[in-house]
Specification:
alpha+beta; Arc Repressor Mutant, subunit A; three-stranded antiparallel sheet
Length: 94
């Protein structure tokens, strides 16, 4: 099981990779397989990060059987958060 630091890092990485891949467009998403390839995160940890971020309202996830993310997209709030980070005005860690 991942440490707290690793879990927070995975969450931040998921948001960053997703934001960069879709260029801030909430109509676009990326597959869970692409996230795994880009991040080299163990599948259970990726699922946990996606579950957490979805619970925070930052992403939406379409799930495959076995608790595997099939498609991941940013929500409006997720885009706002990433834009705030890009501008240097983000508040608080994930």
């Amino acid at each position: 099981m991942a440490t707290l630091h690793e879990r927070k890092t995975y969450r931040d990485q998921v948001l960053r990779v997703l934001y960069e891949a879709v260029e801030g467009n909430r109509l676009l998403g990326i597959t869970g397989a692409q996230l795994r390839r880009d991040l080299h995160v163990p599948e259970p940890d990726l699922a946990a990060a996606c579950t957490y971020l979805a619970g925070e309202g930052l992403i939406t996830v379409d799930w495959e059987p076995g608790n595997t993310p099939a498609m991941v997209t940013l929500t409006h709030e997720g885009i706002r958060r990433m834009e705030a980070e890009e501008e240097g005005t983000a508040t608080g860690p994930t």
